Amino acid sequence: MNAELAYARTLTAAVLSQLGESTSNWRIASIAYYDSDWHTVSEEQTATLLISLKSEESGDFQAYFLTDIPLENATLQTAEQLQGHALEAVPGVALPPCPGHRHPSVPGLVDGVPNWVCMTEGATHFAQPILPNFDPRSTLEEYARENLSSPG
Questions:
Q1: Following DSSP, what letter does each residue of 65-107 receive, concatenated?
Q2: Cα angle at 97 between 94 and 101, to 5 degrees?
Q3: Partners of 84 in beta bridges
Q4: How far is the C-alpha of 78 from the C-alpha of 64, rounded, in Å?
Q5: Which of 85, 79, 84, 44 is nearest to 65 (CA)?
Q6: Residue 18 has what pLDDT?
Q7: 96 preceded by cis ω (within 30°)?
Q8: CA–CA distance, 53 with 94 (Å, rounded to integer)
């Protein structure tokens, strides 16, 4: 598995875990390169990865990971998409919760690192990294080599 696919899989698994019990039955069905010109999944590398998820209760849904933008922004965008699906599937539940508040945490950057932060008070109230060991100075390949078991 190449570094982009491994990173997207690790990111998706981390976000699903952080969304809590309400999404515990969600499974990654596949992650593949997506050719947006033809709307098909491609064997060749493109700038977009299509993340397909399955849930017995919520059905199938998709998110995207963009490989042609800064890694921290791609991480935030993918986390935001997954969170959006969770909030639609489980209305009225703050996913992931913001400690001490009734609203969910939202993806945001703290010193260049993707975090879940308080939507009203920001990182001064709450900040939790979306991925462990994220270094904003690292490339995707460096992160994969240092943190993922089989970056390929």
A1: EESSS-HHHHHHHHHHHHHHHHHHHSTT--SSB-TTSSSBEEE
A2: 90
A3: none
A4: 6
A5: 79
A6: 95
A7: yes
A8: 20
DSSP state of 133: T
3-state helix, strand, coil in the chain (%, to 5): 30, 35, 35
Residues 4/148, Cβ–Cβ less than 8 Å: no
Please state whether the predicted TM-score (pTM) of the whole model is above 0.85.
yes
Output the tens digit of pLDDT for each of the chain's 152 residues: 699 999 999 999 999 999 988 888 899 999 998 876 655 555 555 689 999 999 888 789 999 999 999 999 999 999 999 999 999 988 889 999 999 999 999 999 999 999 999 999 999 999 999 999 999 999 999 999 999 865 44
Q: What is the dihedral of CA 31, 78, 36, 88, to 10 degrees?
A: 100
Contact 19, 80 (CB under 8 A): no
